[in-house]
Amino acid sequence: MNWLERLHEAVVKGQKKQIPDLALEAVNDGVSAVSLVNEAIIPAMNTVSELWRNGEYYIPEVMRSAVTMQAGMDALKPYLVTADHGKGVKVAVGTVKGDLHEIGKNLVAIMLEGVGFEVENMGANQEPERFLEAVQNGAKVIGLSSLLTTSMAEMKNVIALLEEKGVKDDVTIIVGGAPITNDFAMKIGADYYGQDAATAVEILNNLF
Q: For domain 90-207, which architecture applies?
């Protein structure tokens, strides 16, 4: 059996119940856990992103694949004796102050983790200082989410604080959410606008 193809297929099809056993069988058959992650599980989430972008997958399918990916990763953790898998880039994502919405931001976090980023999901209603702390703790990318027009201005406050503290040039800032536009993103000093989770993944994949 081609284990790389089989695990890739399991993630894309959202076969959560099967993937732990498949992963362990592959390891027992001599395939390294690092190869399974780098050559099957992570590329599978890139495939899922493409399917979503093409309108073939919707949020339920993407979430099912993301959960399957995590189940596969959990099964392989004992065999990942090194940190050779993944991109080695830390991304901190959070919803800005005054906004409690998390579903879209959580989907971005899951998909980024699925393609190999180290993700700190900070939650919702986050003060600007919390994003500054994330940068000081090694985040190379900051993802800001807002689904309310009343909280959009908080994105600018976050970016202004990073600039004030002299760390803005050390980090890539990507923003997104229902009311956000590319013009708004550029106006407040963000580096990129992600109109949806798949776009955010594509942008960061191209950067790193």
A: 3-Layer(aba) Sandwich (3.40)
Domain boundaries defined on the chain = 3-79, 90-207
- Rounded-to-integer distance, Cα 207 and Cα 201, Å: 10
Separation of alpha carbons 108 and 96, rounded Å: 15
User: Is residue 84's pLDDT more than 70?
Assistant: no
Note the pLDDT tens digit of each residue in 168-186: 999 999 999 989 999 999 9
Name, in order, each residue with C-beta under 8 angstroms of 176's C-beta and a sequence gap of 6 or more.
104, 108, 143, 144, 145, 193, 194, 195, 196, 199, 200
pLDDT tens profile 93-147? 999 999 998 878 888 888 788 778 899 999 999 999 999 999 999 999 999 999 9
Question: What does each C-alpha distance from 59 to 12, 49, 56, 108 come to in angstroms?
Answer: 13, 10, 10, 11
Beta bridge partners of 176: 145
User: Which CATH number does 3-79 carry?
Assistant: 1.10.1240.10
Q: Which two tokens stand for residue 20?
A: 């732990």
